[in-house]
């Protein structure tokens, strides 16, 4: 189970004793509070706390820009204007705190986004659970032949079976040795802070992750993208659902301008203008490298 019995009891207690508040609340987020959303085989994402809503973004923008926003007729229009013109500070007025359980190798990717506050479960003080991420057969892929940091086609047959067996056996053996090393049954036992070095990168860790909406959108733009690694992408996709219930107008603008939009270079825009005029443009005549041209073709279809 993703949640421990202790965590489940804590959640049930917190949800059973709601407190009145004068601060802005969002019904969709109130429903998410403390509820764990399962991700991968043992992971989850759950909302611990949040601050602000769509109205908070608009309030901050109107304080910042004053009469310059009077031409925007409604909050949704203002939010779309802010997103369209890359105004970031109004979105920083909203914050969210998440409790995330994730494999260590996913955490190492995630922590590269250095714009959040993080507190991780400490294996110096506590003993990590015997829980490992083992990918489903449909996510066992070969190395991509066109992308040095991506997946290619599925592994099949004996090779796929052998890989899965290695992952399971190596994880189990490493944890067995971890338990043996820290055991104080008939021995002093190795310090936990040393024993943890032998654990595999697919073991699960947990952390609290607090971030403002502007930086969260940056995280989601990269990690919810189809080119992101599957194991972090599914976390980003789950967070997207939560954010859509929290700030629907802001998320709608983000989905339109960031997730569904594209940034084009001056060279790419020039190529589009030439194509619209009826010119046949190829990679050789575009002024782009092969990689740029491949990405450009992906955008224009």
From TrEMBL:
Binding site for dUMP: 109-112, 120-124, 196, 223
Cofactor(s) needed: FAD
Pathway(s) of this molecule: Pyrimidine metabolism; dTTP biosynthesis
Active site: 223
Enzymatic class: transferase
Function per UniProt: Catalyzes the reductive methylation of 2'-deoxyuridine-5'-monophosphate (dUMP) to 2'-deoxythymidine-5'-monophosphate (dTMP) while utilizing 5,10-methylenetetrahydrofolate (mTHF) as the methyl donor, and NADPH and FADH(2) as the reductant.
HAMAP family associated with the record: ThyX
Protein name according to UniProt: Flavin-dependent thymidylate synthase
Lineage: Bacteria, Pseudomonadati, Pseudomonadota, Alphaproteobacteria, Rhodobacterales
């Amino acid at each position: 189970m993703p949640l421990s019995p202790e965590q489940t009891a804590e959640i049930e207690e917190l949800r059973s004793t709601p407190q009145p508040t004068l601060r802005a609340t969002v019904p969709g987020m109130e429903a998410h509070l403390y509820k764990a959303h399962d991700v991968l085989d043992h992971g989850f994402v759950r909302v611990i706390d949040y601050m602000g809503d769509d109205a908070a973004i608009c309030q901050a923008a109107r304080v910042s820009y004053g009469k310059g926003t009077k031409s925007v007729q409604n909050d949704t229009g203002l939010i779309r204007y802010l997103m369209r013109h890359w105004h970031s500070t109004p979105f920083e007025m909203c914050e969210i705190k998440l409790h995330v359980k994730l494999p260590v190798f996913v955490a190492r990717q995630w922590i590269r986004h250095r714009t959040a506050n993080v507190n991780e479960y400490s294996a110096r003080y506590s003993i990590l659970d015997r829980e490992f991420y083992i990918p489903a057969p449909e996510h066992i892929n070969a190395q991509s032949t066109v992308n040095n940091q991506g997946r290619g086609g599925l592994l099949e047959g004996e090779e796929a079976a052998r890989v899965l067996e290695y992952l399971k056996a190596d994880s189990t053996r490493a944890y067995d040795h971890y338990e043996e090393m820290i055991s104080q049954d008939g021995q002093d036992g190795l310090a936990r802070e040393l024993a943890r070095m032998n654990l595999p990168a697919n073991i699960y860790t947990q952390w609290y992750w607090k971030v403002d909406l502007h930086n969260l959108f940056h995280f989601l733009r990269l990690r919810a993208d189809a080119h992101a690694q599957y194991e972090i992408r599914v976390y980003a996709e789950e967070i997207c659902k939560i954010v859509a219930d929290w700030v629907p107008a802001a998320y709608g603008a983000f989905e339109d301008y960031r997730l569904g939009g594209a940034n084009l270079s001056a060279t790419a825009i020039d190529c589009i203008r030439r194509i619209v005029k009826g010119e046949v443009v190829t990679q050789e005549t575009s002024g782009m490298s092969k990689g740029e041209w491949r990405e450009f073709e992906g955008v224009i279809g």
